[in-house]
């Protein structure tokens, strides 16, 4: 074989070698999750296994469907405009874990794959968060800034309070994997880009739940606006204890969970 022939053969093979195989789809494992519809003054919670499939469920007081099951997954829609009333909550429609857990209690792996179908005209989006309760600030938030995806929150000890995680895909998709160790070391993978960070001791000890869905922030304006995402993958795996909250008394107990509240890929 001549040198020219060998060189052409190598060049022909380069495009194939340069492109990695597409990532396997994330499973949509809704067991252990619930639909949370947050309005300005109300919060509605429905266990995921009780959601009506094959039909649209309207937001209260609107003609818009807050969720809809389709061949790709579940589509979530919410009002986006920031409320002007004092103490009013930011509306959002999310899938949330139904039980709280602590990072210090064992390794945790979380996953979500979503497609942004409609962005808010103003402001940004929270793609996912770890939150302790309805009115407390989340310890971690995965947010958009244009096409960039950032991690923010008081729970970050290092490298800083804002970590660049990656970018939204050309298909408007975000494939998110989060892994937490009891010692506070953590890893995030967004569309194949890996970032590492550390958590504060307070964040490790705080009971939290993983939430993701249609959630706009800082959408300041006078005209109505909406945000829509389609969840195509979702999962949570906890190797430690998950706090079970009694709906009647509000009391919490710890349950050892080897399989986790919901199944999902390990990162």
From TrEMBL:
InterPro entries according to UniProt: ConA-like_dom_sf
Biased composition (Low complexity): 245-267
Cleaved signal peptide residues: 1-20
Bias (Basic and acidic residues) ranges: 50-60
Residue segments, region Disordered: 46-98, 243-267
Entry protein name: Alginate lyase 2 domain-containing protein
Species in which this protein is naturally found: Swaminathania salitolerans
Keyword Signal: yes
Keywords recorded for this protein, A-Z: Signal
């Amino acid at each position: 074989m001549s040198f020219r022939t060998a060189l052409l053969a190598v060049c022909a093979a380069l495009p194939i070698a340069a492109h990695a195989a597409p990532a396997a789809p994330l499973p949509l494992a809704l067991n252990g999750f619930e639909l949370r519809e947050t309005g300005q003054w109300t919060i509605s919670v429905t266990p995921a296994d009780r959601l009506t499939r094959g039909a649209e469920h309207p937001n209260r007081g609107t003609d818009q469907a807050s969720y809809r099951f389709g061949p790709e997954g579940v589509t979530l829609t919410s009002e986006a405009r920031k409320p002007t009333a004092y103490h009013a909550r930011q509306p959002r429609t999310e899938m949330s874990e139904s039980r709280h857990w602590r990072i210090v209690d064992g390794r945790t792996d979380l996953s979500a794959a979503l497609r942004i179908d409609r962005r808010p005209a103003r402001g940004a989006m929270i793609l996912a968060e770890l939150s302790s309760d309805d009115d407390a600030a989340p310890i971690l938030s995965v947010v958009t800034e244009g096409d960039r995806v950032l991690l923010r929150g008081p729970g970050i000890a290092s490298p800083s309070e804002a970590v660049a995680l990656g970018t939204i895909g050309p298909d408007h998709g975000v494939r998110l994997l989060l892994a937490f160790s009891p010692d506070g070391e953590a890893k995030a993978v967004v569309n194949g880009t890996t970032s590492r960070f550390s958590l504060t001791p307070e964040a490790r000890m705080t009971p939290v739940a993983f939430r993701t869905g249609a959630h706009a922030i800082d959408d300041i304006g006078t005209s109505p606006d909406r945000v829509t995402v389609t969840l195509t993958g979702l999962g949570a795996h906890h190797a430690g204890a998950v706090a079970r909250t009694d709906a009647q008394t509000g009391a919490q107990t710890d349950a050892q969970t080897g399989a986790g509240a919901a199944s999902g890929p390990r990162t």
